[in-house]
Specification:
Layout (H helix, E strand, L loop, with lengths): L2 H4 L12 H22 L5 H15 L21 E4 L5 H22 L24 H10 L11 H4 L24 H4 L1 H10 L9 E6 L6 H13 L5 E7 L22 H6 L4 E5 L5 H12 L9 E6 L12 E2 L3 E2 L16 H14 L14 H16 L7 H13 L32 E6 L6 E6 L13 H14 L3 E5 L27 E2 L5 H12 L14 E7 L4 H16 L7 E6 L29 E5 L3 H15 L7 E5 L25 E5 L10 E5 L1 H9 L1 H6 L5 E5 L2 H5 L3 H7 L8 E5 L15 H4 L15 H7 L4 H13 L1 H13 L2
Parallel strand pairs: 1-2, 2-3, 3-5, 4-5, 10-11, 10-12, 12-13, 13-15, 14-15, 17-18, 17-19
Antiparallel strand pairs: 6-7, 8-9, 16-18
Helix pairs in contact: 2-3, 2-4, 2-12, 2-13, 3-4, 3-11, 4-14, 8-9, 8-16, 9-16, 15-18, 16-17
């Protein structure tokens, strides 16, 4: 079967729409974004121009024609359709359009006083913000003052709320945009999760849809490729609509005929999507408004029972311009197209810029100032010319009723967004604030709970064992399914899991109370079937947690999600998670919490081979701004629930915490007898660090030992009687989470590890000497610690006992290491004192 027979037809457009108005707004958008590049002398050029007809059409066609349903006055309203500028470098097209929209509404409000047109200036994007293109907020705060322009009439808008900083790539804080777009296809990869969320919430087919923009080069990246399987597996159907700009042009080369030799003529972008089962539409000219709107309308009226995700692949021109004749601008110079147009590489007020501007001047009877006098070298004069010409471009709104039409159009579209929207999800309460999830209220005995399916009405009993008796055989990974079950019981199935075809292996499979998710047959299932796609799975999880159904920005109504795999493979998840952390930091709405499960972590994953060891790999989860994630590393079954729910209790109440990462190892060990510990509290892990063995009183002290990881801690605990018999007086501290420990009262922290302890410290860990379980250890910590990389070599593999011995984390190695540490205490302290005295 040929690809052509697999394509869906774009139906001819039979409804009238304001094509001329869209074209005028489109031309204004193109001219404005070129002005941004001209005066900033940075940014992107060809890509934003290529996307402009897509951009204008989806923002102004109206929901009845398949465009976005949104409210510019409340662009982050949860029931707006979600617009994703995943091709983040093309953001100038959106900045330009949002400025034009903001100016149209501001002028209409000023002229009429009608509050329907009012937009909070802190929400709107205005002409003055052109000066903020690719500038930082700090520099913009003093820009006008430094150039003597505070009272200049051209810059009066700045007195309203300053100048808005406009980043070089798309950010989720930008007006209608709902993604930090640009880095290696990561933005588009979250689209399936965003769409699936609204299916899970019970939104009708007319509910929020996701329209995402991306281009062919970013779609070659692994995260974006994995979206193909993710979206189909989730059966998101017409709720997800990808607009694919196909201009065969990247940054440095073409894709076909460049990166891929032209002799490989079966490398076909359309085939790549039809072969994955997507609902594919093609446009001969993706820069033609009639074709774009026809595609939008076709998708809008498509049968909702067709659960294939949708993509429109439109041929576009990188470097597109509205007025071109036979490849010439103004009949004078060759149009710059293809990858050569990627950056804004034109000199200020260059000949090509002037020719572009000339077509706009001729079309609308305006004249830009100063552009024919060469580049402006004086910073003050550059700002004046920049703003003056932005104002001239915006003056087209005053011609032929364009501004009135645009303001009315935006109000009409915005009025379709209502605060009341029918969902089966409870949007009034945040279930993650339920007191049953607090550490203090966790049941310590096994529970039999009755769960009811709120959709089918079915009931059943489920067993949950958050804590076990000493001596029972159960490793930390066994506790993961139990905390997920408790979460889903309390929250009514709001905790979603996606594992890389390892759901059973890493113990998340049985956390789902109602089995596998299916949007049609089992919408309350919380276990999503997932392929071996770590990047795609975490991106889908991010899409899920990024949504909320609450109109109150202070209340969360959504889901939390976990993506898990072997610890060794979790770095594949890091970059999407890093970008998510940035979005979470900036979000004005409470959003969900992303969970990373580094299952089978540490050298204990021995028999699988050293490619599977999660030793160095899992340490990427410490590479975030302090306080924005909570990392947990469990060694005993009874640490899992206490430590996790302490982190969850914080994350549910502190919007700064957007990620909880969890490390657990594969082996099953006997559950520790805490009656033998210095800290006998069953829930001690909630405090982050706790004391396993304290100093023996009235005896010389030999130092502090911080232990982390399963085999390392189990083996250390097993030799404590031997250490005592040998008269080795060390204090042993279990390190579960530095982030939890940091949140404890200072007296507790000092009672566990006083500040001076860091200079009398060794670490025993299945991790590495490159990243310690706590910050600021003393200068000799490395010399005495026991870690999996003790000899700065990769471990070789074998059975678990063999690998642990090779890592020097077996009982004998640990005893010998601690004995040396204790024996050398006098020398250790003396050397450090000598170092300080030498200063």
């Amino acid at each position: 079967m040929s690809a052509q027979t697999l394509l869906s037809p774009v139906e001819p457009l039979t409804l009238a729409y304001d094509r001329e108005r869209l074209e005028d707004v489109g031309f204004m958008t193109c001219m404005t974004l070129v002005l941004l590049g001209n005066y900033a002398q940075t940014g992107h050029f060809g890509g934003p121009l290529a996307y402009t007809p897509f951009n204008v059409a989806v923002h102004l066609a109206g929901a009845e024609l398949g465009g976005l349903r949104y409210d510019y006055r409340r662009p982050k309203h949860p029931y707006c359709d979600k617009f994703m500028l995943a091709g983040g470098h093309t953001i100038p097209t959106c900045y330009a359009l949002w400025m034009i929209m903001g100016e149209a509404l501001a002028r209409k409000y000023k002229a009429t006083g009608d509050k329907r047109y009012y937009v909070d200036p802190h929400v709107a994007m205005l002409g003055i913000d052109a000066l903020g293109f690719r500038r930082g907020a700090g520099a913009l705060a003093t820009l006008l003052q430094e150039n003597g322009l505070v009272d200049h009439p051209l810059f009066a808008e700045a007195k309203i709320r300053g100048i808005r900083a406009l980043a070089g790539h798309a950010e989720s804080t930008d007006v209608t945009n709902d993604v930090n777009g640009g880095p290696s296809g990561i933005g588009i990869a979250t689209a399936a999760g965003k769409a699936a969320f609204w299916d899970m919430a019970g939104a009708s087919v007319s509910g929020p849809k996701i329209i995402a923009f991306e281009g062919e080069f970013a779609m070659t990246e692994g995260h974006a490729q994995e979206l193909k399987t993710q979206a189909l597996a989730l059966q998101v159907g017409k709720r997800l609509r990808v607009m694919f700009s196909d201009n065969n042009a990247g940054i440095d080369d073409s894709l076909l005929g460049g990166v891929v030799n032209s002799k490989y003529d079966h490398y076909n972008l359309v085939d790549q999507w039809t072969s994955y089962g997507w609902n594919v539409f093609t446009l001969d000219d993706g820069n033609d408004y009639d074709q774009v709107v026809a595609a939008l309308k076709t998708m809008e009226t498509w049968d909702p029972s067709d659960r294939r995700p949708m993509i429109v692949i439109g041929k576009t021109v990188k470097g597109y311009w509205p007025c071109v004749s036979h490849g010439k601008i103004s009949g004078q110079c060759d149009q710059v197209v293809g990858y050569q147009s990627h950056p804004y590489a034109l000199k200020m007020n260059s000949e090509y810029f002037i020719e572009l501007a000339r077509t706009f001047e001729q079309q609308y009877g305006v004249e830009f100032v100063g552009i024919r006098q060469g580049a402006v070298t004086d910073p003050r004069e550059r700002l004046i010319q920049f703003k003056a010409n932005i104002d001239i471009a915006m003056s087209v709104l005053e011609r032929n009723g364009l501004g009135d039409w645009l303001a009315d159009r935006l109000v009409a579209i915005g009025d379709t967004v209502k605060d009341d929207f029918k969902l089966h999800m409870d949007v009034k309460h945040d279930p993650f604030l339920d007191d049953r999830l607090r550490v203090a209220n966790l049941p310590v005995e096994p529970q039999k709970v009755t769960v009811k399916n709120s959709i089918s009405g079915a009931e059943k009993q489920v067993g949950v064992t958050l804590f076990r008796k000493p001596g029972e055989i159960a490793g930390t990974r066994r506790g993961i399914s139990e905390i997920i079950k408790w979460l889903n019981y309390v929250t009514d199935n709001r905790f979603i899991t996606l594992a890389a075809d390892l759901s059973e292996s890493i113990n998340v499979e049985h956390g789902s109370l109602w089995g596998h998710y299916d949007p049609e047959t089992n919408p309350l299932g919380t276990r999503i079937k997932a392929a071996i796609q770590e990047a795609g799975n975490v991106s889908t999880a991010i899409g899920l947690v990024s949504q909320t159904a609450s109109v109150d920005p202070e209340k969360f109504a959504g889901v939390w999600a976990l993506s898990g795999t072997y610890g060794a493979f979790t770095p594949l998840m890091y970059t999407p998670a890093r970008v998510w952390s940035q979005q979470n930091q900036d979000s004005k709405f409470r959003v969900g919490v992303l969970h990373i499960l580094a299952g089978h972590s540490g050298p204990e994953t021995a028999a699988d081979g050293r490619t599977h060891f999660g030793i160095f790999a899992t340490q990427v989860w410490k590479l975030f701004p302090r306080g924005q994630t909570i990392h947990l590393n469990f060694w005993d079954y009874n640490d899992v629930s206490a430590g996790y729910f302490a982190a969850a209790e914080i994350a549910a109440r502190d919007p700064k915490v957007g990620i909880i990462s969890i490390e657990v190892a594969r082996p099953d060990f006997p559950v520790a007898d805490r009656a033998k510990f210095a800290d006998t509290d069953l829930k001690a892990a909630a405090k982050g660090f706790y004391v396993i063995r304290d100093f023996a009183p009235n005896q010389p002290k030999h130092g502090y030992i911080v232990t982390q990881g399963s085999s390392s801690t189990v083996n250390l605990v097993s030799i404590l009687p031997r250490l005592e018999q040998a008269g080795i007086n060390v204090k042993v501290v279990a390190a579960i989470s530095e982030e939890l420990f940091d949140r404890q009262p200072e007296p507790y922290r000092n009672s566990v590890l006083p500040p001076e302890a860091r200079y009398d410290l060794m670490v025993v860990s299945t991790g590495t000497r490159r990243v310690w379980p706590l910050r600021d250890p003393g200068p000799l910590t490395d010399a005495y610690s026991l870690t999996s990389d003790w000899d700065n070599q990769w471990l070789t593999g074998g059975l678990e006992p063999e690998v642990i011995a090779e890592a020097h984390l077996d009982k004998e190695s640990i005893y010998a290491g601690i004995e040396r540490f204790a024996r050398d205490r006098g020398e250790r302290l003396s050397r450090q004192k000598s170092l300080l005295s030498s200063l």
